[in-house]
Amino acid sequence: MTQPEVLDQNIRALQEWLRNAWQQLGDPSLTAFSRRELRNQMKQCSADLRMHLQAASERPPEPPATPPKTFAKPALRLLAWS
Questions:
Q1: Mean pLDDT over each residue of the chain, to the nearest integer
Q2: What's the half-sphere exposure (Cβ side, CA atoms, 13 Å) at 27?
Q3: Which whole-number Å values give the CA distances from 47 to 13, 31, 41, in the listed order?
Q4: Dist CA 60 CA 58 (whole Å)
Q5: Is the pLDDT of residue 39 over 70?
Q6: 24 with 35: CB under 8 angstroms?
Q7: C-beta of residue 52 within 8 angstroms of C-beta of residue 10
Q8: Which distant-in-sequence residues (6+ apart) come within 8 Å of 7 by Cβ?
Q9: What average pLDDT does this structure show over 58-77?
Q10: What angle is formed at CA 42 by the lines to CA 31 and CA 50, rounded to 5 degrees?
Q11: Of 46, 54, 64, 80, which is most buried, counting CB atoms within 10 Å of its CB?
Q12: What does the pLDDT read at residue 82?
């Protein structure tokens, strides 16, 4: 896997983890201590996500896999029947 693919995969994983953590935070069966720990983990995950997004925005754009096609005026030939 290339570096950009790993970075994109990490970003998606952190986003998914945060999404699940928000849902878990709404669970009424969590204790006060569990909520506090979850919020601390969410803060750390948010900081990690911010760092990964910053790294993704700073990477140079990837060149296209194939060179762009250039269209030129074709040389015209006259064909004659003999």
A1: 88
A2: 13
A3: 14, 24, 10
A4: 6
A5: yes
A6: no
A7: yes
A8: 52, 55, 56, 59
A9: 79
A10: 175
A11: 46
A12: 66
Contact 25, 35 (CB under 8 A): yes
Query: If you compute the radius of gyration of the chain from its CA atoms, what whole number of angstroms results?
Result: 26
Which token pair is 81?
A: 């029947």
Residues contacting 22, CB < 8 A, separation 6+? 42
Spatial contact of 42 and 18, defined as CB atoms under 8 Å apart: yes
What type of residue sits at position 18? Answer: L
Tokens linked to 3: 């570096």
Structure-token pair, residue 55: 């790294």
pLDDT at 48: 96
For residue 20, give Cα distances in angstroms to 1, 27, 31, 77, 79.
26, 11, 17, 68, 71
At 28, give phi and psi (nearest 5°): -70, -15
Q: Using DSSP, state whether 29 is helix, strand or coil.
A: coil
State the virtual CA torsion across 9, 11, 14, 16 in degrees, nearest 10. Answer: -70
